[in-house]
Amino acid sequence: MDVFSDLIRGVRAHGSLFGSSTLSPPWALHFVDGAPLTLCTVLTGAGWIVPEHRPPEPLRARETIVVRGPATFTFVDEPDTRAEPIACGEHCATPEQGGTRHRRGWNDRGAGAGDVGGATTLIVGAYPVRGEISHRLLDALPVVLRVGGGGTADPVLDHLAAEVCVDAPGQQVVLDRLLDWMLVCTLREWFDRPGGEPPAWWAAQRDPVAGEALRLLHAEPAMPWTVAALAERTGVSRSTLAKRFADLVGEPPLTYLTRWRMTLAADLLVEQESATVADIALAVGYSDPFGFSAAFKRVRGANPSEFRRTATTASPAAERPVPARTTPADPNA
Predict the structure, then answer these.
(1) Do 260 and 268 meet the contact criterion of CB atoms below 8 Å apart?
(2) Where does residue 326 rank: exposed (0-12), middle (13-18), buried (19+ CB within 10 A)?
């Protein structure tokens, strides 16, 4: 498992398509949910994304913008549009105002639907983000990111354009999967953009030494890893691994491992309500629950039981499985 795959696993479209809207100016759609991530792409035409407290961003055909919540945003025909904003969200109705026809998940084929020359077709998908793991991905993103057309996401756009026109059984499932694919392609291109500053873990994944070490730590987080064991598996000396990993990732391998284990543990404490602290400790590589509790408090600022009480009160459990148990690790790792 690579780092990006691990972090994006909890970011999933699930009935999340706000709609495919065929818009004739003037229009102003205010997306009020403040979702953790919202993907906006224009199939035809153009408009402007106006994030809360930020300058407008033009959005042209085949371009994609991702907005990071919790701030809301508006999609308008022009920044100074005269249209009254229409509130749209997860349960958006079918507004027929300001020249806007909106359908949740499909195009309007009703009266006048065939006459859409020069109109703008917008697809918007919102993504819930579950658990501490996926929030590490959010931390690497700006409030607004843009990716132009002509890249790897173009084939996905073609599939989306075809699917939103078909009101057929299973449509939402297909749209969810396409939106997931679209988001992955968009983030890949944004991280790889010329002159960009991707998170350290993104760049490090492509290094033959640090990247392989990261894959091992994510694939087998409960293994009793030492720097020597990682070096042996990656085929380099201990000193080479330690230096390459620290230079590219920004911290020593075992420090990274401890933080990753505590992130896994944080989600498991919420998801697995019947599991004891000792169970969670074993799942993330600690044979001693006391050593695990001390490490968790050092990294997270609260002991596991306190964290569980606070987290389960604040938010519902995520849907992330317990990682497979392997040989327990040294609790001091």
Answers:
(1) no
(2) middle
State the greatest distance between any 2 C-alpha atoms of the chain, in Å, as a whole number. Answer: 71
Helix (H) or strand (E) holding 214: helix 210-219
Asked if 248 and 203 touch (Cβ cutoff 8 Å), the reply is: yes
**What's the rounded Cα separation, in Å, for the pair 46 and 145?**
17
| Token pair in block for residue 266 | 């944080």
Q: How far is CA 43 from the centre of its chain?
A: 22
Distances from the Cα of 138 to the Cα of 5, 156, 301, angstroms: 14, 23, 21
Distance of CA 246 to the CA centre of its chain: 26
CA distance readout (Å), 153 to 140, 184, 204, 275: 20, 9, 23, 41
Residue 281: partners with Cβ closer than 8 Å, 6 or more residues away = 265, 287, 288, 289, 291, 292, 293, 331
Report the distance separating Cα 176 and Cα 140, nearest Å.
23
CA dist., res. 163 & res. 178, Å (int): 9
For residue 285, give the nearest of 229, 222, 209 by alpha carbon: 222
Q: Strands 28-31, 86-88: parallel, antiparallel or unpaired by DSSP?
A: parallel
Give yes or no for a contact between 152 and 189, defined as CB atoms under 8 angstroms apart: yes
Amino acid at 266: A
Instruction: Check if the beta carbon of residue 257 is closer than 8 Å to that of residue 225.
Output: yes
CB 332 within 8 A of CB 325: no
**pLDDT tens column, 252-284:** 999 999 999 999 999 999 999 999 999 999 999
| Cβ neighbours of residue 66 closer than 8 Å, sequence gap 6 or more | 37, 38, 39, 40, 141, 144, 145, 147, 183, 186, 187, 190
The string of pLDDT tens digits covering residues 201-236 is: 999 999 999 999 999 999 999 999 999 999 999 999
Amino acid identity at 191: F
Residue 323: pLDDT above 60? no
Query: What residues contact residue 39 under an 8 Å CB cut-off, 6+ apart?
Result: 64, 65, 66, 124, 125, 126, 127, 179, 182, 183, 186
pLDDT (0 to 100) of residue 104: 39
Q: Which residues pair with 51 in a beta bridge?
A: 73
* Residues paired with residue 19 on neighbouring β-strands, in sequence order: 124
CB-CB contact of 34 with 118 (8 Å): no
